[in-house]
UniProtKB/TrEMBL annotation:
Protein name: Aquaporin PIP2-1-like
Lineage: Eukaryota, Viridiplantae, Streptophyta, Embryophyta, Tracheophyta
Bilayer disposition of the protein: Multi-pass membrane protein
Bilayer-spanning residue ranges: 37-62, 74-101, 121-143, 202-222, 249-270
Similarity field: Belongs to the MIP/aquaporin (TC 1.A.8) family. PIP (TC 1.A.8.11) subfamily.
One Pfam family in the UniProt entry: MIP
Length: 284
């Protein structure tokens, strides 16, 4: 009899050659007594700070180098391709570094997706999001201190809807882009997949970083690519101009909707969560 039987006779479920972790409690007061909990929050803060520092500095550097009115060249700098690599590469590096400490979220949308899938507690999710937003603000503040002469001239790396695009288009771009990212996170960290494909050496941060890279290629011309509310919020706070604040809701609502859809799709359709629940109900 094969080990991998998702649904067996009379609605029962057979033995599996992998183990799903138990659902995280919604509120776990014991976490406050663990140093690992605070270490994880610190890791999320520092990782998001470094993420914003490198990526926003790359964006501003590109705009300086390609500004023909300021001695630059039209094809100067890293270009959109280089910016996408900066975002994807930093996510790869930082998820690799922090995955064993905090899970390597570095993004409130990822945290919300994992919360909905019961992978993290509500307490941990809230404090992660606070740490990520504070880290993003500090990272952008560092960029401003390094590029003070150019920071406001070249937009501060802040996200806003590009001219010529409707609000609906921008919102859809953020929803779909975040869905791709969070879906990749679920797939890359799925214990079932890891058990089946143990012969394939897949480093989980690698597909996650590539997902960020590919989404940036597609949506930089539309919204500058948010797919990370902390990234958009931190840049808006430090840049502090009307346009990024007016569009800020797009970079929260879109990613959270995309993350929720990805969580539902992976947990209840691909992982047959709904079928299992129905099977369990029928057997009882």
């Amino acid at each position: 009899m094969p080990k991998d039987i998702e649904a067996g006779g009379r609605g029962g479920f057979g033995a599996k050659d992998y183990e799903d972790p138990p659902p995280a409690p919604l509120i776990d007061g014991h976490e406050f007594a663990k140093w690992s909990f605070y270490r994880a929050i610190i890791a999320e803060f520092v990782a998001t700070l470094l993420f914003l520092y490198v990526t926003v500095l790359t964006v501003i550097g590109y705009k300086i180098q390609s500004d023909v009115n300021n001695g630059g060249e039209i094809c100067g700098g890293v270009g959109i391709l280089g910016i996408a690599w900066a975002f994807g590469g930093m996510i790869f590096v930082l998820v690799y570094c922090t995955a064993g400490i905090s899970g390597g979220h570095i993004n409130p949308a990822v945290t919300v997706g994992l919360l909905l899938a019961r992978k993290v507690s509500l307490v941990r999710a809230v404090l992660y999001i606070v740490a990520q937003c504070l880290g993003a603000i500090c990272g952008c503040a560092l960029v401003k201190s390094f590029q003070n002469a150019h920071y406001h001239t070249y937009g501060g790396g802040a996200n806003s809807l590009a001219d010529g695009y409707s609000t609906g288009t921008g919102l859809a771009a953020e929803i779909i882009g975040t869905f791709v990212l969070v879906y990749t996170v679920f797939s890359a960290t799925d214990p079932k997949r890891n058990a089946r494909d143990s012969h394939v050496p897949v480093l989980a941060p690698l597909p996650i970083g590539f997902a960020v890279f590919m989404v940036h290629l597609a949506t930089i011309p539309i919204t500058g690519t948010g797919i990370n509310p902390a990234r958009s919020f931190g840049a808006a706070v430090v840049f502090n101009e009307d346009k990024p604040w007016d569009d800020q809701w797009i970079f929260w609502v879109g990613p959270f909707i995309g993350a929720a859809i990805a969580a539902i799709y992976h947990q209840f359709i691909l992982r047959a969560g709904a079928a299992k629940a129905l099977g369990s109900f029928g057997s009882s």
